[in-house]
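Let's practice the habit of predicting before peeking. Look at the sequence and jot down your guess about where helices and strands might fall. Then scroll down.
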Amino acid sequence: MTGRRHALARLARVAIAIIAPLAGLAHAGAYEDFFKAIELDRASVITDLLRRGFDPNARDPKGQPALIVALRGDSHQAAAALIAAKGLKVEERNAKNESALMMAALRGNLPAARALIALDADVNKTGWTPLHYAASCATADAAAMVRLLLEEHAYIDAASPNGTTPLMMAVRYGQDDVARLLVEEGADPTLRNDLGLTAMDFARQAERADMAELIAEAVRRRQPNRGKW
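Done guessing? Here is the structure:
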């Protein structure tokens, strides 16, 4: 019996030695398939891999969380599959401290933004915020994204690490209606960033005369009695 047990133990070790590398290869293949499916926006492949135990929080070779990769690449169906995944960590950040909600805001992906907010994504994270990214968005849904974030209590005058506000981003990089919406909702046009620049300076640097006039009018409205005795 002892000899038989030793023989079975040797057989088990041989089996493990054969199977373990194959399992590693299978995982490597799944990893490649997973990120290829994100690139090609194939939600069914992603869902199948997740059902088989693949981690929805996996990072690509550059260290980007899978959901951020999907949102940045406008792979809407892939992003939706990941957002629906059990165990998703919605606040996983990349090396630039960008969150999935920030990327959804930048790309104007309203369904993803709503779903992430429902999962308690941080609307008012420190540093650059989703509202900064939404304010600089160039898509047709930019104003709707800004409105959504404001409805979710995004701080309208949030300061980036260098003191830049969403309004500054809007008048330089964003759409006219976004800048107007921020002004209408009470964004402060007189604030300065760490370089001493105001929203007016941002508009002028971008040679956007209409935005400069918008800011000038907003400043005048904030100082109605200036120059009066």
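How did you do? Residues 12-26 have pLDDT under 50 and may be disordered.
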